[in-house]
Amino acid sequence: MEPDKIVELANKLSNEDLCHLIYIVAERLSVFIGSTDKIQLTGELSLENPACLNGASVQINLEYTDGSRSFLDAYGEYLEEVKKNKKIMLPPLTKG
Q1: Which among 26, 33, 52, 77 would be 20 to 30 A from 46, CA to CA?
Q2: Is 47 within a domain?
Q3: 41: in domain
């Protein structure tokens, strides 16, 4: 598809249409969250609800936000290390 046609299509999509499109291609997408000296943090889109409307915007949902604490379980120690070394600003991590 020509780039101009893609831009034209994108400009015609409502936010609801965009949510549907993201749902259709969710298995082909991943989100780069950040990196530390040791690892690259990425997340797959939620299989149940990859995108939804949130006010006037489209919210992208990662698999880690589906009620589990697996993101913190997997990456918490690295994030705490990065925060301690003040390489990036992160909010406090909470478990529970």
Answers
A1: 77
A2: yes
A3: yes
